[in-house]
């Protein structure tokens, strides 16, 4: 059949063009909407603070948890001291203290009697610094602020410090009761020196947590405290020698034990206010 004159059937190419035009008309509103959403998404400002849903995976320090775990933790700290290496160190310290008691103490006593309190007022300063109560007070303050500020590293450090002081002071009390030697000034409870033992225990913990340079300063203070105990005629040289070894052994062992038990990887929120970015950070303790 011949089509009417003046009208032509659409060719295949023209039908494809017509179909594409129809599709363009149909999707134009949708594509405009998507483009607007993309633009809006790109213009969303970066928030200054992470979402409240971003919670760290590391548990926050809490007093209730510490009290519950305290007996077990103290027992683990005490067991960490019982090693062959520590036994040899304590044995060497005891042997050196015994040698000093038989050969050096009398001469040192006489020297301090002839030149009493050569440091003058500094004797009182280091007497306070080296007092076990002073060091325990500083450790307790750090512990309390770590709970308030949610500072996990400070919390671990203060717990190790306090535990080392508790074990050291308890050991000193037992040894003083067992030996009950006389002090150069005539008092009782000479062996070993509690000030010296506590100071070296503190220095050992500080070194383990904060490195050798800060530890060197702490050991220097401990040495000055030890000298004050002799210069102030509070202790013989043998008392100070064994006190230093005892404190070092306890502080080192407790600090290393705490660090090994608290090795972990923690997922924490990360916010950089200067760059205007936020995200997640992994914090590791090894």
Automatic annotation (TrEMBL):
SUPFAM superfamilies: Acid phosphatase/Vanadium-dependent haloperoxidase
Alphabetized Pfam families for the sequence: PAP2
Coiled coil: none
Source organism of this protein record: Kolteria novifilia
Domain Phosphatidic acid phosphatase type 2/haloperoxidase as annotated: residue spans: 161-255
UniProt cross-references to InterPro entries, sorted A to Z: PAP2/HPO, PAP2/HPO_sf
Name of the protein: PAP2 superfamily protein
